[in-house]
From TrEMBL, chain A:
Gene3D superfamilies: alpha/beta hydrolase. GO terms for cellular component: cytoplasm. Keywords: Phosphopantetheine, Phosphoprotein. The lineage of its organism: Bacteria, Bacillati, Actinomycetota, Actinomycetes, Kitasatosporales. InterPro entries: AB_hydrolase_fold (IPR029058), ACP-like_sf (IPR036736), PKS_PP-bd (IPR020806), PP-bd_ACP (IPR009081). Residues 7-82 form the Carrier domain. It comes from Streptomyces filamentosus (Streptomyces roseosporus). This is Carrier domain-containing protein. Signal peptide: none annotated. It comes from the Bacteria. GO terms for biological process: amino acid activation for nonribosomal peptide biosynthetic process; antibiotic biosynthetic process; secondary metabolite biosynthetic process.
UniProtKB/TrEMBL annotation, chain B:
It comes from Streptomyces filamentosus. One of its GO terms (biological process) is cholesterol catabolic process. Pfam families: p450. The keyword RNA-binding does not apply. Keywords: Heme, Iron, Metal-binding, Monooxygenase, Oxidoreductase. It comes from the Bacteria. GO terms for molecular function: cholest-4-en-3-one 26-monooxygenase activity; heme binding; iron ion binding; steroid hydroxylase activity. This is Cytochrome P450. InterPro entries: Cyt_P450 (IPR001128), Cyt_P450_CS (IPR017972), Cyt_P450_sf (IPR036396).
């Protein structure tokens, strides 16, 4: 159970890191790298949320997104949301 | 911002200690004393934040402020027009896309089609709708109990602008709060976590509302409201992108929401402080036109705007370098002794009144016709329905370096007995 969560968490972190890299044109962001410190704006954040919905089928409410905008925090939020809808 | 009035001692003001970016300075400091000092001694002042943020100029005289706003070839809007960019060290995301952040001639392509439906003549059609909104706002205040007019006023422009834009009513409450968050991002009642995330989240949520609304429209028949017009507009021969539409929706709503409420609150406050002048406008409706202009001058809700110099230029005896940000202070210009006789006297009959609360030049407020109509209807209703205004507690100011405004204004209004509802001022021939 705990291993599973870790694996799921790691997978989400890889996904979010790749997404940041793609959207913001930066090489390999780490878990603590923040979307806005890497150059994100409220406009690119809209793209981020749209892509997550398209690719993952997860609807990420704006307010949940702003609760934590680093790779690790956003991955955790996504895991919570997918669990809740599963 | 606090509307301080003399007696103060402007000569003693120590400019070196002032943080021109700190919102608390405008709520707890004495900005009018500072501006009076600067107008006299250092009308074009250079300010360097102590913590490495970008230095900028502070321009306080009416003539210099007007020159900066008019001369777009030297003072450009393209890099943004509000100090929050420097305050939060965030680059502007709307350059060349959003009307206020655009210079002529491109600016005209965004402005002209919207302007056609926002002239005083065009907005006159909104009179009955807005009068209804005014009555709804004032009705609960007329029961003789303490009423927070500032909170009620925050929804006033949202209601008429929301309906002119065609935004669903159920979004108005949240949108109104979000627009306030964008200008009071470090006010404890509006901040979420920290200033920067507050601004970003507010922008993002507002853009999402607009994006949903755009998605709902049929592009071939988008409607005649403001969003419909944006959907039919073009820039350099191309239809506006969704981003451009969102950003221009944002600027319309922000322009309306963060300014107009504070003229409403200032009206109640000024009338409580000057009962003789309140009596004058109650008894003499002819005075209400000049009274409204004086309330705009007195409140100057948009405190500053900003431009970036595109070339080296002399202003007020100083040399501004190409690339420098230049902030101009409308609240100060509107108290300039060189232009206004007894500038710190509130006078409902003031004439002439060359205030620049709506700015001047190519970006002159596109919503001024609408704001004047709404504020005039409010003033009529207020003068006809209210006998007496009393303050029922301390006014609480919004923490903002951009907006001079209120978040709480507890008042007690005594209704006028047996008065007929306000006459239509259009019918009375007062529409300019
Ligand atoms: C008392 C109320 C208002 C005040 C004091 C006010 C003040 C101003 C000022 C000073 C400017 C000039 C900005 C600059 O030079 O960069 C401006 C522009 C603008 N205002 Fe207002 N405004 C008010 C109401 C409104 C309303 C009701 C709307 C919308 C319905 C609105 C929308 C705008 C827009 C879109 C601009 C940009 C125009 C451009 O760039 O050409 N404002 N306003």
């Amino acid at each position: 159970m705990s291993t599973q969560t870790t694996t799921a968490g790691a997978a989400s972190q890889d996904y979010v890191a790749a997404l940041f890299a793609r959207l913001l044109n930066v090489p390999a962001p780490g878990p603590d790298d923040d979307f806005f410190v890497l150059g994100g704006t409220s406009l690119s954040a809209m793209d981020l949320i749209a892509l997550i919905e398209q690719e993952r089928g997860v609807q990420l409410p704006v307010r949940d997104f702003y609760r934590g905008t680093s790779v690790a925090e956003l991955a955790a939020t996504l895991d919570q949301l997918s669990e809740a809808s599963a | 911002m606090r509307l301080s009035t003399p007696p103060f001692a402007p000569a003693d003001t120590d400019v070196t200690d002032v943080d021109f970016l700190a919102s608390t300075y405008y709520t707890e400091g004495d900005p009018h004393a500072l501006w009076t000092h600067l107008r006299a001694h250092e009308p074009v002042h250079h300010f360097t934040p102590s913590d490495g943020r970008e230095p900028f100029w502070v321009v306080t005289r009416h003539a210099d402020v007007s020159r900066v706003l008019k001369d777009h070839s030297v003072f450009s809007s393209r890099r943004g027009t509000m100090l929050c960019i420097i305050d939060l060290s965030m680059p502007d995301i709307a350059s060349d896309q959003m009307m206020p952040d655009t210079d002529p001639p491109r600016h005209g392509q965004l402005r002209d089609p919207l302007n056609r439906v926002m002239t005083p003549r065009a907005v006159a059609a909104q009179e009955e709708t807005i009068r209804g909104i005014v009555r709804e706002m004032l009705e609960p205040a007329l029961d003789g109990e303490v009423f927070d007019l500032a909170q009620a006023a925050l929804m006033f422009p949202m209601a008429f602008t929301g309906s002119m834009m065609g935004l669903p009513r159920e979004t108005w409450d949240r949108m109104s709060r979000l627009t306030t968050m964008t200008i009071a991002y470090d006010d404890p009642e509006y901040m979420e976590k920290a200033p920067k995330p507050t601004l970003r989240q507010a922008h993002h949520e507002l853009f999402s509302f607009f994006s949903d609304e755009i998605a709902r429209r049929d592009r071939t028949d988008p409607g005649d409201d403001l969003i419909g017009i944006l959907l039919r507009m073009s820039l350099e021969g191309e239809p506006l992108t969704e981003r451009q539409i969102m950003l221009n929706c944002y600027s319309l709503l922000l322009g309306a929401n963060v300014t107009t409420p504070h003229v409403v609150s200032t009206t109640a406050l000024a009338m409580a402080e000057h009962p003789d002048q309140f009596r004058a406008i109650q008894e003499n409706p002819q005075l209400r036109g000049t009274a409204m202009e004086e309330l705009l001058r007195w409140s100057s809700p948009a405190s500053h705007f900003m431009r970036y110099a595109t070339a080296d230029v002399e202003l007020g005896g100083r040399t501004i370098r190409a690339g420098d940000p230049v902030s101009v202070w409308l609240g100060s210009a509107n108290r300039d002794e060189r232009v206004f006789k007894d500038p710190f006297t509130f006078d409902v009959a003031r004439r002439p009144n060359r205030h620049i609360a709506f700015g001047v030049g190519p970006h002159y407020c596109i919503g001024s016709g609408l704001a004047r109509l709404a504020l005039r209807l409010f003033l009529d209703e207020f003068a006809e329905r209210v006998e007496k205004v009393e303050l029922a507690g301390e006014p609480v100011h919004l923490a903002s370096n951009f907006v001079a405004g209120f978040k709480h204004l507890p008042v007690r209004l005594t209704p006028r007995a047996g008065t007929a509802p306000a006459r239509s001022f259009a019918a009375a021939g007062a529409v300019a």
